[in-house]
Amino acid sequence: xxxxxxxxxxxxxxxxxxxxxxxxxxxxxxxxxxxxxxxxxxxxxxxxxxxxxxxxxxxxxxxxxxxxxxxxxxxxxxxxxxxxxxxxxxxxxxxxxxxxxxxxxxxxxxxxxxxxxxxxxxxxxxxxxxxxxxxxxxxxxxxxxxxxxxxxxxxxxxxxxxxxxxxxxxxxxxxxxxxxxxxxxxxxxxxxxxxxxxxxxxxxxxxxxxxxxxxxxxxxxxxxxxxxxxxxxxxxxxxxxxxxxxxxxxxxxxxxxxxxxxxxxxxxxxxxxxxxxxxxxxxxxxxxxxxxxxxxxxxxxxxxxxxxxxxxxxxxxxxxxxxxxxxxxxxxxxxxxxxxxxxxxxxxxxxxxxxxxxxxxxxxxxxxxxxxxxxxxxxxxxxxxxxxxxxxxxxxxxxxxxxxxxxxxxxxxxxxxxxxxxxxxxxxxxxxxxxxxxxxxxxxxxxxxxxxxxxx
Length: 456
Description:
By secondary structure, the chain is of the alpha+beta class. It is built from 15 helices and 20 strands.
């Protein structure tokens, strides 16, 4: 087992990793920018190193500074968390070449599954269902011709990215060129890779993902699915497990297909395979995320497995002793809400000082947070403050528990999206479990319409 782990991240995920390391008896090193000197993860870790100024490009994304921090603190492993460099094969290669352990898959596996075009090719080999799509697009004219071949509507997607960036919906040929140029610019800025590809667009799909894990001893597990349909501009807001749309038969079928794909490719560590589901409950593979997910706690709550601890154990070469249950048996229902520092109506980021902070508690409530009262939310990073996760025996009880938890949550001094989450939980589609990736579009339109109404 590792003796000391450097966490190349910040906020709530850094604290989540610190907690897992402590339970394994591993010392931790926090890294931070100048803007994060007073951050909670800096206080929680055994050691802390400043790695640069506020800009992420000069700190959390600056590989030489991260490696130097690991060397001066005698860390023997690096955990990338999510975001930042977590899906960078180059970072994994540098870590390995410097004699450190990367807590994640190998750089080769990241190159295979992290490249969306290559991942589609792998999915075909392993029998995972796919929507009609393309390889890498050469230019806007190529995109236009391929879109005509596939048929509108289509989605233009970044080859090397994720998180909803570098994606554009296109409903007609007249819009292809503008969408191609816009997505190219965003992909180039976000991922340093401007390449794009096309995929048939489902108009009202559900977004469902499967959590998987493999060790270095030829063992692999799938832990069922998460429902991630409630999202805005491809950014997830609320996740739950299990999905209200999933059947036991489909769960078992997909679990075996995913498990076989991991074993055949020699994948190790955590991974999440994401799918779209059409109105006939047919699943279509989209991509694989080769890291821990923001929404991993809902799977932990319904399976009883600490995914981060098992991820670290797998990276250290241990033979995991998880039961070979296929499909994994769920225990009740879990829901997660992402609490963001942003205006609930305009979604504009809202940095500033938190004047008071009281997280919810009680039976079945978990809060993964990176903030505290008196801390100032920086303006230069993602606006995620915390995640509220609840667990209950049934979905109906979980919805009630989440509503109660959000009512208890006090964050003063800044605006948050807690009010939006409350509205989402009361929506008729959400309560019925029939939501799609377009549900949030309708809800947002209704919110804006109410705001336009003159006050009496």
